[in-house]
Design goal:
The chain is α+β, with helices and mostly antiparallel strands and 163 residues long. The chain has a single domain, classed as endopeptidase domain like (from Nostoc punctiforme) (endopeptidase fold (from Nostoc punctiforme)). It has 7 helices and 5 strands. A 5-stranded antiparallel sheet has the order 4-3-2-1-5, with helices on both faces. α3 packs antiparallel against α6. The chain is globular and about 45 Å long.
Amino acid sequence: MEVKIGFSKPKSKFAILSYLIRLVDRVPFSHCYVRWETSVGIDIIYEASKTNVKFRNAKYFLEEVDVVKEFSFSLTKDTYKQVLFTCLSYAGAPYSMRQLLGLGIYKLFGVKIKPLINDSSAFVCSEIASVVVEDILSTSLQTELMTPKDLYNILSSGKDNIQ
């Protein structure tokens, strides 16, 4: 089974939050997601976006975003089952605008504001994608502080942890 970790930006020119994320992190993407083809042949996206953690048909997702980069992983049956278990376990959890604000403050000023960052019941895109990457790489990551840029750097360098 092949699973991809992807990085994208909205096609809309009026996505201010995306623009701010790209500006602060100095990267061409603002969102990350997990993508795979299901056993019934439907390409699916797993992401944290807008209101919650969810599954989406990739056809509709790709109408709204430009894919910047995808990293592919060939998984064993057991690892795929663990990834699917993780995704299903978090599906429907709320999106955390508080955590996004906390990550912005942390990136800009180096200050951790625990009530904003440590929200274990709500997620941002990079956190939910990095939880899946933990399963894929059989490692532990500092997911609550993970930004799309951080996750991209881990995957592009082949590292399985943050130095």
